[in-house]
Fold this protein.
Amino acid sequence: MHSDKLDKIDNFLQEHHVLSLATYSEGELSSCNLFYAYDKNNISFVVASSDETTHIKNITSNPKVAGSIVLETKTVGKIQGVQFRGVFSDLEDGSLKDLYFKSFPYAISMNPKLWVIKVNYFKMTDNRLGFGKKLIWDSLAET
């Protein structure tokens, strides 16, 4: 069930297309930026990445990830951003694959490996709602 908080977060995510991702495994940290397509029904990001990258090597032994999406602005009253946590895995859902290629049709010719990040926590900062206003969504709190 979508809460009002999750709807506001969804709206922000639909306006952007690049996330920063952090991974960790066996003492190795990695961060990267990835293009994403967001599926609000599954509360998931679809991303493309190669098996040879450090972040993908990290998730093979530790699929828990964290990341963020931000609106880049110097105007304090317009600051918006989302932090998230989730679980990274192989993409098996064909409809999510279609969603990614609808968002990035040029990627079809590259035949990328697609992955899914199932989000279990969001924290959105939205200064348009008041300075430092935070919206928290936690899948564990929803059950």
